[in-house]
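Consider the following assembly input.
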Amino acid sequence: MLKILKRKKNTGSCSSKRFFDCEDKPRRIKARFFSFLTIIIGLFYLYWVYAAVNREHAIAATLFLLAEIACWGLFCFATIGLWRLRFKSPEGLPGDGSFSVDIFIPTYSEPLQYLTTTLRAASRIEYAGAIERYVLDDAGRSEVETLAMSLGFHYLSRPKSKQPNANAKAGNLNFGLRQTHGDLVLVLDADQIAQPNMLNALIGYMRFEKVAFVQSKQSYLTQEGDPFYNKSQVFYDIVQLGMDNNDMAISSGTGVLYRREALESIGGFVEWNIVEDLTTSYTLHAHGWKSFYFPHALSRGLAPTSIGGVYQQRGQWALDTMRIFIWDNPFFKKGLNLLARIQYSTVALSYICSAFLFPFFYLIPIWSYVTGYTILTRPEGEFLVIRAIYFIAMIIATHYLCYKQQPGKQFRMLAGLFPIYMSGIVRAFFYPIGKKPGYCPNNATLGCSLASKSKQPLMAILPQVVILLLNLIMPFISLFFGLCEPRIIAANILISAIAIWSMSQVVWAALFPGDWEPEEDPDNVYSLD
Amino acid sequence: MSILSIKSKRRTLILAGFIAFWVIAALWTVNKFNPEFWKDGYSYYKDAQAFLEKNDLEAARNSIRKARTRDAKTSGYLVFEGSICEKLGLPDEAAQAYSQALALAPNDPEAGLGLARILLAQGKTQEAATILSQLAATDLDTSILERRAGILAQYGEHVRAMADYERLLAGDPDNAGYLRGYSASAMAVKDWNSAQKTLSKLLSVSPDAALSDWARGQLVIALRAVGKTAEAYALLTAAPQATNATMRAQLAMELELFSEAMPLLEQLIKTDPGNADVANQLGTALRALGRLDEAYTLFSAFPDAGNLRPRAELALQLEKFDEAAKLYLQLTRTESAAVLDREKLAYALDRAAQNNNQALAPVVSSSTAVAPAAPVATAAGTIPDPLPGDAAAEKEYKALIASEQASEETKLRYSWLLMRAKRYAEAYDLARNLQHLTERPEELELAANAAFLAGKYAEAAPLLESAATRQPQNTIFLRNLADAYDALKQPSQAARTLDRLLELEPRNREARLKLAGLLARAGDKRRAEDLYRRLLDDEPENTRLVDELATLYEAQGRHTAAIAVLSKAPPSVLADPNLIFRLARLYTWIKDYPAAIRWYTRFLAATGIPAAQRAQAGMALAGAYLETGDLAAAQKQLQTLRAAVSTSPELLLLAARTAMESKQPQQAVTILERLASLRPLNAQETQWLAGQYRLIGNKHKALALYEKAMTAGWLTAANSLEALGDLRFDAGQFTAALTAFQQAEKDNTVGRLALKLARAADKAGNKALAKAAYDRFLAGNPDDPELLLETARYGINSGNYAQALNLYEKVVAQKGSKGLLLELAQANLAAKRFAMAESWAQQAVQAGEGGFKATLALVQALHLQGKISEADKLLRENKQAIMAHPEGRQWLGYVAVARDRQLEAYDIFNDLAKTDEGDPGKMWLWRGIAATRRGDYARARESFDKARQYGASVPQTAIDQ
């Protein structure tokens, strides 16, 4: 984002009054051109594949064709979603203090050290109007109560109020909502260190009456090089901007300023899903509310630092996103416009592709090495040329669509986390609305039943390692034992290289997550006053 | 914001470098294994073609070998290699390449021709023929085609050879060699029509005599093969030669020209006397000409397998059954044996056995036989005994039938065998499936008799009916038919059949007696009675006649007539215990119980009576005693029968009735409970048991049973309903009791039931109904003082004071006032007749009746008459006794108010209100009144509020005060 902003303004023939819109125009034009080109080439490629698939292996051929169609569809959806981005000034939109604001900091089991820093930062948030700060402690810890009171926070706790500790964070927030009366509600996670100007930057957007919430960009403390791609630049610096362009930004659950009226119009935070932020956004949009995205970080907090934590977090996202997709599908959701339906479906489709289609592509070479069969009947060289054109066009288009936000890394993370996405999608079928799966909060100190957290890294990434090693070794084995024609092996080696490249991100990150830079080290950050 | 650290960039670079290295290493390894791996077979083929054009055969061969290494499935590369090898003078390598090509593409002509060319050059004609046979003819020239046709024919590929010859004949139609080759192949594949045409053509074009003889001989074979024997015979007869005499004789035989065949055969056998074939043909001709003995003799002179059948057939025809059986036995062991042979074997065995048995035991045979083997019998009596030799025949018959190939004739013969063996069911099962059952009399007769004798009357009846229709004079059919109908419970049909029989045999007594019985069962009672009477006139001492006539009367309900027949029977007839029993039973039915007792007693005195019948008679005797009221005799008889511990419901019921009649409810309960354990009790029995329970004081069980009967809808009698009401009332179920009494009451609106209804209604809270019922009760002018007292009390409670006091007067008039003084005082108080109340209370106090209540009543009477001071005085005198009771304190309070002792009144009501005794609302009200009069308005308001909370109505006057 910074890089984008640093680009010099090219006023040329641009008459847009939108912030940074003219500067973004060259990128936008290239992105649209190459996306359109990719879609056309993709159509040609799909037709070629349809004509060339080996019908003797009907199952594999059909799966391959469907996988290619799904990938093409996902690209189309992504292009639509990212057709135009909306940028905003880092200063935000000034407000007049006419709204009363409640700050909610829900907590359950986060370490007191983190919470202390979070509360201190929250106590320094500046605002000219009425403001009340609340700690919503779902664990009912006395030390938290003491801390909250000492920092001038109201302390609310369901356990201490003899109320059932149900529906996780959403239930906790709704409990807070019922106890308070502010016009706006700023939600901060218990590990999110807010900047003092947070409210002043966001509150101006609430002058638009139909805006249900304004989500600020999320910033996380990560190991050097962000091995797990926690910063998710593609999402926070591109996708959210595309959604914002349609007034359909998605809440990330923290650093978000809600309008109480909007929440009350849908009965509060939606509780049937664990990921209350996405589900609440979804429901608000379906009720005709709009939402904005503020693309500058106003707080920063913790992210998973191990493959177990990543599995838990991303698995939860995938599970809940797919629960929405399966049990409350965007294409059948009353109240959503077409763009919103596409945007929400794109998220689910990306999980489906990551869980099933990408691994399928990486298993095809192995299948060929072992059986000697090919999915296509046309010469391998022909396939490599056509596929390479399509592939390169897609890379260029993606480069401009997600300009300098490491889309390749994003892709490798998606591909590399396929087991947990696969698990999430399958589990989603067993958890309809009304039957909630188990939940484990991020960076919790309390015991968590999910096995993924306690797994050894190597065991956790065993499927990825197996795919990686098979792609690495099988060409030689197949060649030595004469399982497959050398020509076919040679063609598949190039696909295997992509598979190895894709799997290596997660494998490396899991085994060697890296060290902390001093300014990003939580021990340092959370010990500051 | 995208921030790539140095470490991260380094990591990415290392990874990318590794993957690039791996890709290069992998591709290098592939190329090492398979140089120029990116080139396919076609590329090498193009190279080979280029080399060939340059006449560089070795280089071309190397390139094409690489092509087939790349692509081993393209036959063209192999053919190309084969052609290059031929050019290089390498036939073995060329043949190998062509063979591999053919293995991939069997129809590749170039490969086939190439390989065949090499094989022919090497003299391997058979392999070449195989290869050639797989090639399309259009690709071959004439010489190759001629050679291929010859080779194909030589190695048995006649169809392909014919195809090749056809192509050759198309070019040269009169070529004798092609015609001979074609016809030989056509003959080999039995293509007789094609053979005929080419052989005829060959005969017409061939100048070679030997070839013509061969063609003629082949043509005869072909003509015979298509059934043109006459033409073949004519062809040979047109050119008679000694060499074809045998063939001519054979054809004459085939054409059944026996007279022409015989001289030829006689001539042949003269020249060759030991020629068995000729002898057999001659025998066949003789047989065909009707000279059976000569034929049999000739066949027997040359006994061989070829003439076994004709010998067997002739033996059978000549009725030499033993010999026929032996010959057929041999025949059936040969491969050519047919089903018919086995059938004839069975037949021969059957007949041989019969013949042998006839010699030992002559068989009675009645009707004409349609087949020599069938010893036809028209009824069971005429069927002969089983024959000792039948076993062998049966074995053959069974085998034939099991194979489902047996003819109808064989089945018929076997059926008769089974009939002879008295295996009627099997015989019928076999006969009923005969194809011409309804058309052939012998089959019909067999099936009818078999079914009847097997007891299959439903099946027998229609068959016998048909048989009787076909043979109307045969009485056995009619008799059997009548029996069949009788067995099928069709007495009318049976009677009609016997009528038909009696038309033929009018004096047949057995038939008449049977007819009488059938008429009775068919409902023609009058004719049956008439017939019985006439028969009885002839035979008065015929017990069966007496019995059946009596039964006839019984069935009509004419018990007196039945008694008359039985009682007038001669003593010899009446000595039969069964008739005595029936007579006793008849007397029971006409309710002449003394006579019944007499005859039952006589029956029981007889000996040799079955125990069950004796028990039945004993029970009937006990019942008769019960009916005559001789309960002691009945009890005694029942004890003899051990009725109380019997498992017979009828006997238990009789015992229960006797116990009830004898007023022994406990015994009745025991017996009825035992009965209930054996089977569910019916409505009557349930009510009996309930009643008996009630009598022995077990009201709970009695009520339960009555409720059960009520639920089942069995309780309809008023007394039962009343009993139910009583039990419900006793059980405290007043509303239910009321319902029962109401149902029981119906017309009985007065008297005891009205009183019960009134009590129940009162208890159930239905005052109006209670009052109406009491009124109905009183309308009957009852004089029982207790009932009058109850009614009076009800009157007081229901506010009907005048009537109540009137009733009290009646009670006092009847039994005096002792013990009723307090009640009379209270009744007068209730009726606001305070003076009378004072009088009765005074008497009660003086008589010491009622204790403090009498005093209180007196206080009330005085107080309510305005005699406040007297009341006050009385209260004070008896304060201690009165104050011990809330009611007394209450009245003390009232008097205190009246006497304006408001503080005392307030305290009294205050205590009473707070103890919640009596009516707290009322106490709070009076507390308020007392407080108001004292001027303590705060407590007054509090009291009135409380009173209202308890539902009391606070008069405005009290508040105003």
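The two ends of chain B are 93 Å apart (CA to CA). Ask yourself how this observation constrains the way the partners meet.
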